[in-house]
Specification:
The complex is a heterotrimer of chains A (about 270), B (about 150) and C (about 625). By secondary structure, chain A is an alpha+beta fold. Chain A has helices at about 20-25, 80-95, 100-105, 130-140, 170-175, 215-225, 245-255, and strands at about 1-5, 10, 50-55, 55-60, 70-75, 145, 155, 180-185, 190-195, 195-200. The longest helix of chain A is centred in the first third of the chain and has 17 residues, at about 80-95. With about 150 residues, chain B is of the alpha+beta class. Chain B has helices at about 5-15, 20-35, 40-50, 50-60, 80-85, 90-100, 140-145; strands at about 75-80, 110-115, 130, 135. The longest helix of chain B has 12 residues, at about 20-35. Chain C has 25 helices and 20 strands. Chain C is of the alpha/beta class. Helix content of chain C is about 40%, strand content about 15%. Chain C has five domains: about 25-130, Glutaredoxin (3-Layer(aba) Sandwich); about 150-365, NADH-ubiquinone oxidoreductase 51kDa subunit (Rossmann fold, 3-Layer(aba) Sandwich); about 375-460, Ubiquitin-like (UB roll) (Roll); about 460-550, de novo design (two linked rop proteins) (Up-down Bundle); about 565-619, 2-Layer Sandwich (Alpha-Beta Plaits). In chain C, strand 18 and strand 19 form a beta hairpin. The mean pLDDT of chain C is about 90. In chain C, the strands form six sheets. A five-stranded mixed sheet of chain C has the order 9-10-8-7-11, sandwiched between helices. A five-stranded mixed sheet of chain C has the order 13-12-16-14-15. The chains are: A alpha+beta (about 270), B alpha+beta (about 150), C alpha/beta (about 625).
Chain lengths: ~270, ~150, ~625
């Protein structure tokens, strides 16, 4: 499919979003809630662009809108820049100390407006939803979700207390763009905030160190066992070992395997 | 509050195997207990394999669900446009004063829960209040106040 | 109860039923819609039936509980047939006289007749009353005549003639062509051509398709859909069945607001009966066509009236019913990813009428671009509150004055809000505007679901803007930044204006927020939420400036900007105000002038409500 972005002719595959197409062609469109490993969400609205198709003009998010034949996209028109200015102004009013917001505004040369409604100074969550989405889409645990609605909307564990489904994989912390999700490693557990959730750490039966949680290790094992169900080599019952010791054992196992009859591999 | 198996089980069975209808499921539970007890949602989650986080999302999103026990009587003040123009905020204020609670709250003695509702569709009768589901229209703050002394 | 094995079977039944019908037989229909029930209609029915039985009148005269007649201001309503005598504001005490005089002897009881407020004349015939006379009641026609819980009654009132015709004679493509030719536009608010939507759905190459009725009527002040669902649920079912045939769907959903228990109950009964009679389910009327309908209840969220949020709510995959990006549109990818046609209650209810009378019939009503009738819910500062069905193109002024009866209390009309919280205010000087999709949009407002709130000089437009925005802000799902944050910030600014703590810069800031919400929001809730604010700012700028520059509220509504005082010329010293004041701000001796302490006064208005001498002044 042929279309133009900022006057530049580009070719798109079918079922491709404007955002992906722009990025492939080195054209800048800012995003916040977008994550390449997750389904497009369309909540921050920062990637809003102008789209002209069949002589009709509309504004929509590049991350969700499919690229189509004959389209003409403008990534930084006056209207688009105004939307972005307001979005960043809204978010900075909500989270005055989140660094990435001011950085984005500076990079795009947008002057932030000051607004009457302000949150507490230490609010970090910009409601991008990456934490909830990664837990649901990538990890498959749905340990957290969005609670309430409107200005009270917030990602939360069920009832704001310990989430039983949480495996402590810390993917939520990994994808959080602002540091609103934090993980604190205690002696025998990790504590995830703001989920008020504690997950016991795996204590290595070999060396005694802990670098992952019991539940996360079991989860990985389940996934692997599922993949390797029909193969001869099953994942070892190594969920009582830390990753270092697990690797050691794997090497030992490899050394015990019969030698293949291939020249150059004999010891 | 502990929930009885015999109360929750029939509701769970009714919805077993259904892909839609989760809102209706929660409404049935709300009707049974007059709110959504956490233990009830946990039972539903376990037995019907619906993530608890999903149920919590729904319970907190929609207006008709409450996670706290309701009073014995529920007073809903309609805040629709027609009622607003005819003075609904004053009705709400007077009831709020008389009962000593704000919208969404329950009196200490557990008798009354005061709520606002966004238009029940009886606009000609505004300002209007429902008391345990019965409609009372064309109210003044004085008449509304008297309702709290009555049983429907 | 019968089951119709074929169309012929149904038609023979209809014929025999009509034969048995005696048009000259006396019967009385009582409006039992939610509104009249709230006014005690059921008590009236009970008393009537009791007395009728006592006097043995029940042998010849029957009672029929019908759906909403629409003349809500005058309820409880009662119509005696065959004379079509309308009695208004009927009380339980009137039952006796009605039975002995009207039902038995055909004598009219003058005092129960509608009285025209300007001429003082009593009018006995329902269709002579200006409120009804000026209307063109097509969708609401059967509301006053049929028992909504009786499929047989629906048949006796031309029900299912359209479905029979369609099943016998028409191919799906022909049905769609007819709907396209009729010019029917979606009545949910957006006004998208229904036929075009159906065609897109039909063209999708998918085995499974759905039709959905959006009955999540959330606009405060609107109750048209409720009235149709309570008063004639079969019309919606028939429409959906025809639609399902046209697009190739075999399953449908009706998504009903939780706050409409009577509508839900009548719908459930209607589905039950339709199944039993063979008009729903497998092998409808023996033609081999299968179509089943399920009811989904809403949980109390205005956003679920938005079609993609509605889909999210039914699917409940994540729990929260968030709107989804479009494209893809539901007609291509909707419920569970399948092609889905979503239409409003009024749209579905119009379909059987179009198929029965033909596209040209529908096309002849209305304007060039807006065909057919529209049901408006007329509320606010108007004499005749209720539902009015009129052809598109009627002027707003005629609607308000001729049908609505004008403003009570000889006050001046100030504006009419159309389209609910997503619509705008049409000021008095633009009242000649024809009621048509494009014309209303041009004026900055919109047709929406047909809500119409009349405002007079005692309405503060800043307060109106604040009211609507606080509604949309409360109902915002919160997913997207512009709507969630923008509505919150805009509301704060409006509140500051209403409190007299703002400057001129508030107005330009509101405009900036408004345009970002219009351009950046994910769904129509956010995109249109600024409308009431923007239109009131546009047409009533002086009023805003009074709040900002002069710190006054000309209409006397905004609490921070008004003072309550007692008029010494009218005060009798009765002390009622002193007793009613919750802030103990009034003092005075019995039979002496009472005084309000402005420091303690909260401007709640309790004293004004209780004073019998109109001695409380608000400035």
């Amino acid at each position: 499919m042929e279309l133009t972005i900022d006057g530049i002719r580009v070719t798109a595959r079918s079922e491709e979003t404007i955002l992906n197409l722009a990025r492939e062609n080195g054209i800048f469109i800012p995003t916040l809630c977008h994550h390449p490993a997750l389904e497009p969400f369309g909540s921050c609205r920062l990637c809003t662009v102008e789209i002209v198709q069949a002589k009709k003009l509309k504004l929509d998010t590049a991350c969700t809108h499919p690229a189509e034949e004959g389209m003409s996209v403008t990534t930084a028109s006056t209207r688009v820049r105004h939307v972005r200015k307001m979005i960043l102004s809204f978010l900075i009013a909500r989270c005055p100390e989140v660094f990435v917001l001011k950085e984005l505004a500076d990079k795009m040369g947008l002057k932030i407006l000051s607004l009457p409604g302000e949150n507490m100074k230490d609010e970090k969550c910009i409601l991008c939803g990456r934490c909830v989405r990664v837990c649901r889409e990538a990890i498959g645990k749905q340990a957290i979700s969005f609670a309430f609605r409107g200005e009270k909307r917030m990602p939360s564990s069920p009832f704001g207390i310990q989430s039983e489904n949480c495996i402590g994989c810390t993917a939520c912390e990994y994808v959080c763009p602002t540091g609103a999700v934090t993980v604190k490693k205690e002696q025998k557990t990790i504590y995830l905030s703001p989920w008020s959730t504690e997950v016991p750490l795996l204590e290595c039966s070999n060396c005694g160190s802990s670098d992952s949680t019991v539940k996360a290790a079991r989860h990985v094992e389940e996934k692997l066992n599922k993949q390797l169900q029909d193969s001869e080599v099953k994942a070892e019952e190594t969920s009582s070992l830390c990753s270092k010791c697990r690797r050691k054992i794997a090497v030992q196992r490899l050394e015990k395997l019969p030698q293949p009859k291939v020249r150059g591999f004999e010891k | 509050m502990s929930i009885e198996r015999k109360e929750i089980q029939p509701i769970i069975e009714k919805y077993r195997g259904q892909t839609t209808g989760h809102v209706a499921l929660l409404q049935d539970i709300q009707k049974e207990y007059r709110y959504l007890p956490r233990e009830a949602l946990e039972q539903v989650s376990q037995q019907l394999d619906i993530p608890l986080s999903q149920l919590y999302s729904m319970a907190t999103f929609y207006n008709s669900f409450n996670l706290e026990p309701r009073g014995r009587h529920e007073i809903h003040v309609c805040m629709g446009t027609a009622c607003h123009v005819r003075g609904a905020p004053r009705i709400l204020d007077r009831l709020s004063q008389k009962l000593g609670v704000g919208p969404g709250e329950t009196t200490e003695d557990g008798e009354y829960t005061l709520e606002t509702v966004n238009c029940v569709g009886a606009c000609a009768l505004g300002p209007l209040v429902t008391f345990d589901g019965r409609y009372y229209g064309q109210l003044t703050p004085g008449k509304a106040e008297k309702l709290t002394g009555r049983k429907p | 109860m019968k089951t119709f094995a074929s169309i012929l079977d149904m038609e023979q039944f209809r014929k025999s039923k009509l034969k048995k019908h005696k048009p000259e037989a006396r019967h009385v229909s009582i409006c039992c819609g939610t509104g009249c029930r709230a006014s005690g209609a059921l008590d009236v029915v009970q008393e009537l039936e009791r007395i009728m039985e006592e006097r043995g009148v029940d042998a010849e005269v029957s009672t029929k509980l019908t759906g909403c007649h629409g003349f809500c201001e005058q309820g409880p309503l009662l119509v005696v047939f065959p004379e079509k005598i309308l009695y208004c504001q009927v009380k339980v005490e009137d039952a006796e006289e009605i039975v002995t005089e009207t039902l038995t002897r055909g004598k009219i009881i003058e005092r129960l007749l509608y009285q025209d407020p300007s001429s003082g004349m009593r009018i006995s015939q329902e269709d002579q009353i200006p409120f009804y006379r000026e209307q063109m009641r097509l969708l609401l026609a059967r509301n006053g005549q049929m028992d909504p819980t009786s499929l047989e009654d629906y048949l006796g009132n031309n029900g299912y003639i359209a479905l029979a015709k369609v099943l016998e004679n028409l191919e799906p493509a022909e049905i769609i062509e007819e709907i396209k030719q009729s010019g029917l536009r979606g009545r949910g608010g957006a006004g998208f051509p229904a036929g075009q939507k159906w065609e897109i759905c039909r063209q999708q190459e998918e085995e499974i398709k759905y039709v959905i009725c959006n009955a999540d009527e959330g606009d405060p002040g609107c109750f048209q859909d409720r009235s149709i669902l309570e008063g004639n649920p079969f019309s919606v079912l028939e429409g959906m069945t025809i639609g399902a045939m046209a697009v190739g769907a075999s399953e449908g959903y009706i998504y009903v607001r939780n706050e409409y228990p009577l509508a839900l109950s009548h719908l459930e009964q209607a589905l039950e009966q339709a199944r039993q009679y063979g008009l729903l389910g497998t092998n409808i009327l023996g033609t081999g066509f299968h179509f089943e309908v399920n009811i989904c209840r809403g949980g109390g969220a205005f956003v679920c009236g938005e079609e993609t949020a509605l889909l999210s709510s039914i699917e409940s995959i994540t729990g929260e019913p968030n709107p989804r990006p479009r494209p893809p549109y539901p007609a291509t990818r909707g419920l569970w990813g399948k092609p889905t046609v979503i239409n409003n209650v009024k749209t579905w209810a119009t379909v059987p009428l179009i198929m029965e009378h033909g596209a040209p019939w529908h096309n002849a009503i209305g304007t060039e671009q807006s065909k057919g009738t529209m049901i408006f819910s007329l509320t606010g500062k108007i004499r005749n509150t209720g539902l009015v069905e009129v052809p598109m193109g009627l002027s707003l002024k005629d609607l308000v004055m001729k049908i609505g009866g004008g403003i009570p209390g000889n006050k001046q009309i100030k504006a009419v809000q159309t389209g609910g919280p997503s619509g705008g205010c049409v000021p008095e000087k633009k009242l000649d505007i024809p009621l048509d999709y494009e014309q209303l949009s041009k004026a900055g407002s919109m047709m929406g679901s047909g809500g119409m709130i009349v405002m007079d000089e005692s309405t503060c437009m800043v307060d109106v803007a604040r009211y609507f925005l606080s509604f949309t802000q409360d109902e915002s799902c919160g997913k997207c930044t512009p709507c969630r944050e923008g509505s919150k910030q805009m509301l704060l600014l409006l509140e500051q204006i209403a409190e007299g703590t703002s400057g001129r810069e508030h107005l330009s800031l509101i405009e900036e927020i408004a345009s970002s919400m219009q351009d950046g929001s994910l769904c129509a809730l956010g995109q249109l939420a600024p409308n009431p604010v923007v239109t009131t700012m546009r047409y009533f700028q002086q009023e805003y400036l009074a709040h900002i520059d002069d710190k006054t509220c000309p209409a006397g509504i905004c609490r921070s900007l008004i003072t309550y005082s007692i008029n010494p010329e009218l005060c009798t010293g009765c002390g009622r105000c002193l007793k009613s004041c919750p802030a103990a701000a009034i003092s005075g001796q019995p039979e002496e002038l009472h005084v309000i302490d402005p420091e303690k006064c909260t401007r709640c208005g309790a004293c004004r409500d209780d004073c019998r001498f109109e001695a409380i002044l608000v400035q």
